Amino acid sequence: xxxxxxxxxxxxxxxxxxxxxxxxxxxxxxxxxxLEGDDDVLTKKMKLINDAIDEIGFTPYHLKLFFLNGMGYxxxxxxxxxxxxxxxxxxxQFGYTYAISNEMLAAGLLIGxxxxxxxxxLIGRKVAFNLSLFLSxxxxxxxxxxxxxxxxxxxxxxxxxxxxxxxVLDTCVFLEYLPHKDQWLLSFFAFFWxxxxxxxxxxxxxxxxxxSCESADYCPSHINRGWRYVYYVNGSxxxxxxxxxxxFIRLKETPKFLVSNNRDAEAVQxxxxxxxxxxxxxSLTLEQLTELGEISSNDDYRKxxxxxxxxxxxxxxxxxxxxxxxxxxSSALVxxxxxxxxxxxxxxxxxxxxxxxxxxxxxSASTTQGVYRDNLxxxxxxxxxxxxxxxxxxxxxxxxxxGVLCIGGISGMAFLFGYTAIKNRAQNVALSSISxxxxxxxxxxxxxxxxxxxxxxxxxxxxxxxxxxxRVATCIxxxxxxxxxxxxxxxIWICGAFVGVIGLLALLFPFExxxxxxx
Length: 519
Prior knowledge:
mainly alpha; single chain; disordered N terminus
C-alpha cells in the first residue's frame, strides 16, 4: 500500500500492518476508509462513530431493530409470493394469459426502491422506515377488493411501491447501529424473507384450493374469492407489523447518516442517549467531532431545498458510488450480481407452482392442494439457508463474505441442475427444498454485504440501485418464462447457470467487510 494510505491508517489511530491486497496482517481491525474517497474529515469522524458504537456494544435497542427491520424483508417476499400464488386464478377470472400483474409488481418494487432509497440519503432513514409498511398494508388490503384487471394491477403496483423501500433501508438502518463484531447478524435478515414466503404460501394453501375456479372457461367472482381472502389476510398481517414498528421502538436517525450530513450534535446526542438508557459507556463528545471540521463530500439537504439543489445532491450521491476505480469496480460487480440474481431466483420461485403442476402425477401432486403443500415444504426448508450462512460467517471467519457467497452460488447451481433430473415426487420435494436453502445462503450474505460496501453518504442510494438492478431483471422474468415455457426445464437451467456465475463473481469483489469495520 502507498505511503499516503499508510499515513491515513496511522492518522486514524490504528496500529496495524496493511498488505498490498488490503488485508490486515494482525488481529486489529481498521475501517474501510477507502469507501469515503478523499474526504479525510469524514473518514476520521466515522472512525470516532465506529469506536463509540463498539464501545456501547449490542443492546436491547439493537435486538428490537433486528426484529422490526426484519419485518420489512417479511413484507417484501410476502407480497411477491401473494402475486405469484394467485396469478393463475386472477388470469382465469379476468381472461388473461400473460403475467402482466407480475410486471406491475416488479415495476412497483423497482420505482419504490429508487424513490425511498434516493430520498433516504437526503432526508434520512426514519420517515421511510415508519411510513412504508403502513402504506403497503393499506394498499394490499385494497388490492383484494378490485373488480377489473386494470384496477388490480394498479393496486399491485401501489402496494409494492410502498414496500419497495424496505429492503433498501432495513439493512442500512441496522448496519449503521451495529458493533463490528455483530455485523454477521445482517445475514440472518434473510430468515425473515423465508418466514414471509412461508406465510404467503401457507395462506395460499389454506384459501385457494377450495375457493378458486378450476379453469378460465367458467370463473365468475363469486366462486373465485380465494385470491381476495389471501390479500385481505396478508394485508392485515402487514398492518399489524406496521403498528408494531411505531409502538415497540421509536427509531432515531442513524448517527452515520447524521455525521455524513454535517449534523454532528444530533449524532452524539443519539449515541449518548442509547448509552444512558442501557447503562453503557460512550466516551464520544461533540468537541471531538467538531474540531475535525466539516466534511466536504456531502451536505445537509436542508441547505439545498430547491429542486436544482436536491437534484445536485442526488447526482453527487450517485457519483460517490464510483469515486475511484476500486469503489467503482465494487459497485459495478454488486449491481451485476443483483441483476443476475433478479433473473434466476424469481424465475425459479415465482413460476415453480406452474412447473410443478405440469410434471404429472408421478413427479408432482395431482391436486392444486398437493402442489401448494409440496411448495410449502420447500419454503420451510429454505429457512436453513440464512442459518447456514450465519453459522459459516460466525464459526469460519476466514471464509469471509466472499467465500460464503461463492459457496452459496456454486452449491445452488449444483442442486438446481440436479433438480432437472428428478424422477418422482419425493425427489421433487427434496431437490426443490435443498435448492431453496442453497440459494438462500447466497441471498442472505449478499443482502448483508451490499450496504457494507457502500459509502456512508450514499449507502441508501447504492442499496437502492442494487435492489433496482434485481427489479429490472424481475421485469424480464415473465418474458423469459413466456418464451421458454415454464412447463419445461429451460427456466431451471437458466436459473442454475446464473446462480453459478454470481457465485464465482463474488470472488472478484474488492472489499471484504469481515476484515474491516464498515464506515
